[in-house]
Design brief:
This protein is α/β, with parallel strands linked by helices and 355 residues long. It has helices at 19-32, 43-49, 82-95, 106-117, 142-163, 178-186, 203-214, 232-244, 264-282, 302-312, 326-353, and strands at residues 6-11, 36-40, 52-55, 99-104, 122-126, 166-171, 191-193, 220-225, 248-252, 288-293, 296-301. It is elongated and about 70 Å long. It binds adenosine-5'-diphosphate (ADP) and 6-O-phosphono-beta-D-fructofuranose.
Amino acid sequence: MQKFKKIGILTSGGDAPGMNAAIRAVTRTALAHNVEVYGIYRGYSGLIGGDIKQFSIRDVSNIVNRGGTILYSDRCPEFKTEEGMRRAVDTCHRFGIDGIVAIGGDGTFRGAADLTKHGIPCVGLPGTIDNDITSTDNTIGFDTAMNTVVEMVDRLRDTCESHARCNVVEVMGRGAGDIALQAGIATGATAVVIPEFPLESNESIIKKIKDSKRLGKRNFIVIVSEGLGHDFGPALTEQIEHETGVETRFACLAHVVRGGSPTLRDRVLASIMGEFAVKELLEGRSDIVVCERNNQIVSTNIRYSLILDRMYKNKLKDGDLDDFSAEEIAEMKAFCEEKTRDMRKLYNTVDILGL
Ligand code: ADP
Ligand code: F6P
């Protein structure tokens, strides 16, 4: 088994609250095992360019509570090229980095899988507000993002109640409606629209607003996920005002939801996942993503995780399942069905409680 002396850590893709707590956990766990730690700045761009600094225990002091990422993040198209990969591997050799913990979303994991193939063992940590990594119940940053939406929507509700208005609120999540759905329940939204269960028409929302107005309701919150496209919210806003007579405003929370101090749950998740990632690497396991399943921290192969995502999103391509056994495919299908069932239940809850 390879003896690890130096590991690198990077954050890549969209930042997420809790990334710093993960950086701290990785650093301190590695140092506790007498392994040197190298902070790689600006994700794969810093790996290509050698923007790297050796970390001591004190370099990660006072960051467990901080949003963003002290390592900064980047989208790095060059890393997808052979030349970019060659330069990244050269940097690892130059610094003597024998393994990397990469914190980010599915794009970051694709990069980590490539790097592992090129001889640098990598472990991925799911850091994204979107919660769109199907193999884990929760991603680092998701809980904070939901809580931020709740805080913002509670404020909008106050002013809607005073003025008898409706507010359509667009929240982030890329192709996933997880943030919108959970925040919708927590804020008592009249309706939630997510890409997983697209509406046949907007009429059901219009009807619900009219019905609940008749029942004496004054404030109406409709949460829409950005996955429906950025035109969807403003168009729905106009339609609601026109067809219900309720004055309606539109708010796009955008990157507000990606910043801020991480919640307790995100800090704890990031800390235990970070510790777990280093232990996996030191025990010789790589090309994996650390996941939380039923309150247990486990790891899963990166390709398995990426293909599971495609299966869940009905985006499988020819040949995607060729490398997997019948048992693995059955397990993946069960996993997707369970997640769809859970989302459907939450969706129905909004419907029943939002009157
Ligand atoms: P996220 O990790 O949040 O999904 P991105 O999709 O932007 O964010 O991916 C982050 C970075 O990961 C990209 O800028 C690129 O450097 C790297 N990456 C993404 N896809 C691949 C790929 N197919 N092969 C190698 N690297 C990739
Ligand atoms: O993946 C995180 C995320 O914030 C998504 O919710 C959103 O679609 C995207 O990143 C925004 O990316 P950018 O930082 O490039 O605006």
